[in-house]
Design a protein that fits this description.
Elements (H helix, E strand, L loop, with lengths): L1 H4 L3 H13 L7 H7 L2 H19 L14 H18 L6
Helix pairs in contact: 2-4, 4-5
Length: about 90
């Protein structure tokens, strides 16, 4: 599961950069394996999906236009996160 998470841009930022800076692990793959459970990774993915939706304005009336420079990037992030969550949320012993 962690290998799959490292293929999702926003999860790489959260798990490998932000959480390392917070001292949750040492940044090594083994360190991350020792810290993250399936539930933590899914929760981080859902949090990042909420952020992507907010960036796109999907949860408000002030949505980003497809013509905006960052629109395609945020849509890519949103799709990656949705695929990851769908794949892993109901798997046992991930």
């Amino acid at each position: 599961m962690l290998k799959d998470a490292m293929k999702v841009d926003e999860l790489v930022i959260q798990l490998n950069e932000v959480d390392k800076e917070c001292g949750f692990h040492d940044g090594s793959f083994e360190g991350m394996l020792g810290y993250y459970t399936k539930d933590i990774i899914i929760a981080e993915a859902k949090n990042r999906l909420d952020m992507a939706n907010e960036n796109l304005g999907l949860d408000s009336m002030f949505g980003m236009s497809p013509e905006d420079d960052m629109y395609s990037i945020h849509m890519k992030e949103k799709r990656q996160l949705e695929r990851f969550i769908k794949k892993w949320k109901n798997k046992e012993n991930a």
